[in-house]
Specification:
The complex is a heterodimer of chains A (about 425) and B (about 150). Chain A has about 425 residues and is α+β, with helices and mostly antiparallel strands. Chain A has helices at about 10-20, 40-45, 55-65, 75-90, 115-130, 140-155, 165-175, 185-195, 200-205, 210-225, 260-280, 315-330, 365-380, and strands spanning about 1-5, 25-30, 35-40, 70, 95-100, 100-105, 135-140, 160-165, 245-255, 280-290, 305-315, 340-350, 415-420. In chain A, the strands form 3 sheets. In chain A, strands 5-6-1-7-8 form a 5-stranded mixed β-sheet. A 4-stranded antiparallel β-sheet of chain A has the order 9-12-10-11. Chain B is mainly beta. Chain B has a single domain (about 25-145), classed as Umud Fragment, subunit A, CATH 2.10.109. Chain B has a 7-stranded antiparallel β-sheet with strand order 3-4-9-5-6-7-8, with no helix packed on it. In chain B, strands 1-2 form a two-stranded antiparallel sheet. Mean pLDDT of chain B is about 80; it is low at about 1-35. Classes of the chains: A alpha+beta (about 425), B mainly beta (about 150). Chain A: Belongs to the DNA polymerase type-Y family.
Chain lengths: ~425, ~150
């Protein structure tokens, strides 16, 4: 049996661990730059706050209903996610971290007669150790575990656990799951299925395999079999190295001068390079893009991007920054108000399989050593403590995060205060 | 991710691996003698890991949080204004533990006492009164204090 564990309204729950006054109140968390709603407490959902709603359109409702609004605090959410996952790894022999707030657990060969009891124990332990409430769905396949989780959350929020053990359990949950909520069903498939009057997961599970194969290819057949209880997807415990890495941000305010944009692009490039080194790979394709604010039609609009092919794949911050700035130089134009820039890298290869270009004159060994020292210092002293000078020190371009909570678990100056 | 990387070869032909792990650090003892070359150092059998303060203070890292104290109601228990407290949320609270409690949304540190079916939060300072936890209060024990860290005055 598999279980899918999912943290309830994860970002909001993280905020609530360190601010108990938020309990029972409508709370939302906004995306980078305070743009739109990315997490809602149940109370906020009940007020009709939609996922992805632009914050400036919701301001009136927030004020009127006294919604507590937070900027996203990824340092906190990342640390809390890590705590949840490590707690789980103590409780089950094998698991797959599926996203920041979800994990598949392997419950085969567990010394429990009653898996529901085990799930309740896991739920209770995570809640006590980390403060994060979770829901758990248990079923014979991953796809059904997702559905069981969905059902637990929607229909048994107090208990927070649902077990699909018999056909009756399965039917009950499948019937209650709208087709667009089935794992792997995107918008296109969901529209197509609805056109054929398949509006819930049970109807899909009862469809003929021939029909599904014809309409949705082999992926659809796997989905169908999983819904019928046949395992097609195993636990994926080794995350594949990333195929592409993209770091891009909207600027806190629009920028028209070259220098702060250069600093931002250099910082994004450095972040890409650090991610590459972390997964021990190098890349040889680099893509830089820059654009103005499309929501300001009154201002002149400009979008451009440039792809650069590096002669030798690298993970050196020096090199990647140099190429990124070269790319920026090719697309930057005076006279625009820029809102966003980004650096994307692809063509990723393991670092021990890099083909050195014939005319490569770079002393790569020195770069590697410098990067090792840089990574170690930044690991110990905090991100960007040591940086390439062109990354700058003003951070004019930095995110707008006006309502960010403290980094309670990662900064000594920002710990939770308790009264004595 | 490989956690070990070799340092440059040592004069005595040993390769030493340094440890690179993102979350915790461990100091590795260096063995000075090579088994096949010469008489082993009599000290090798007694090599121990160096003292690791983190391991001493933290039992379950993912359930352990640090908090900062404001106020003086717990001075009798060596908890002063500015103290750093190590809080383990995985501990089951026992009578007379020092705990972080949340009462009506406020975080406070007090001694937890259960007596004749009633729960009290006891300060350790003459100027403060014990708090009786009643039905009408929203009350949870957030975690159990396992260490108190103070700087000398």
């Amino acid at each position: 049996m598999f279980a899918l564990l999912d943290c309830n309204n994860f970002y909001v729950s993280c905020e609530r661990v360190f601010d108990a006054k938020l309990e029972g109140k409508p709370v939302v968390v906004l995306s980078n730059n305070d743009g739109c709603v990315i997490a809602r407490s149940n109370e906020a959902k009940a007020l009709g706050v939609q996922m992805g709603a632009p914050a400036f359109l919701m301001q009136e409702l927030f004020d009127k209903q006294q919604v507590e609004v937070f900027s996203s605090n990824y340092a906190l959410y990342g640390d809390m996610s890590d705590r949840v996952m490590k707690t789980l790894s103590e409780l089950v022999p094998s698991m797959e971290v599926y996203s920041i707030d979800e994990a598949f657990l392997d419950l085969r060969n567990m010394p429990y007669e009653n898996l529901e009891e085990l799930a309740l124990h896991i739920r209770q332990t995570v809640r006590q150790w980390t403060g994060i409430p979770v829901s758990i769905g248990i079923a014979p396949t991953k796809t059904l575990a997702k559905i069981a989780n969905h059902y637990a959350k929607k229909h048994q929020p107090q208990r927070g656990v649902y077990l699909i053990d018999t056909d009756t359990d399965a039917e009950k949950a499948l019937l209650a799951t709208p087709i667009e909520d089935v794992w792997g069903i995107g918008r296109r498939y969901s529209e197509m299925l609805q056109k054929h009057h398949i509006i819930n997961a049970l109807q899909l599970a009862n469809a003929s395999e021939e029909w599904v194969r014809q309409k949705m290819k082999v992926v659809g057949v796997r989905m169908l079999r999983e819904l019928q209880g046949e395992i097609c997807y195993q636990l994926d415990t080794e995350p594949a190295p990333k195929k592409g890495i993209c770091v891009s941000r909207s600027f806190g305010k629009s920028l028209s001068e070259r220098k702060p944009i250069e600093e931002a692009v250099a910082t994004f490039a450095a972040r890409c390079a650090a991610k590459l080194r972390k997964q021990q790979s190098c890349a040889h394709i680099l893509h830089v893009f820059l654009y103005t604010n499309p929501n300001r039609p009154d201002q002149p609009q400009y979008f451009n991007s440039k792809v650069l092919h590096l002669p030798t794949a690298t993970s050196s911050s020096f090199e990647i920054i140099r190429y990124a700035l070269r790319g920026l130089e090719l697309i930057f134009k005076e006279g625009y108000h820029y809102k966003k820039a980004g650096v994307m890298i692809s063509g990723i290869v393991p670092e021990n399989q890099v083909q050195i270009s014939l005319f490569d004159g770079r002393k790569r060994q020195l770069d590697t050593q410098a990067m090792r020292v840089l990574d170690e210092l930044n690991r110990r002293m905090g991100r960007d403590t040591v940086r390439v000078a062109v990354q700058g020190f003003d951070r004019n371009w930095h995110l707008r995060q006006e309502r960010k909570s403290r980094c309670y678990t990662t900064r000594w100056q920002e710990l939770l205060e308790v009264k004595a | 991710m490989s956690l070990f990387y070799p340092l440059p070869e040592q004069p005595d032909g040993l390769t030493i691996y340094a440890f690179l792990e993102p979350t915790e650090s461990v100091s590795l003892p260096f063995y000075h003698s090579c088994v096949e070359a010469g008489f082993p150092s009599p000290a090798d059998d007694y090599v121990e890991l160096s003292l690791d303060l983190l391991k001493y203070l933290v039992d379950k890292p993912h359930a352990t949080f640090c908090v900062r104290v404001k106020g003086n109601s717990m001075e009798g228990a060596t908890i002063v204004d500015g103290s750093l407290l190590v809080v383990d949320r995985s501990r089951v609270v026992k009578n007379n533990d020092i705990v972080i409690a949340v009462i009506n949304g406020e975080y406070t540190v007090k001694r937890f006492r259960r007596d004749k079916g009633k729960v009290w939060l006891i300060p350790e300072h003459a100027a403060y009164e014990p708090i009786l936890v009643t039905e009408s209060m929203e009350f949870i024990v957030w975690g159990v204090v396992t260490f108190i860290i103070n700087q000398p005055k």
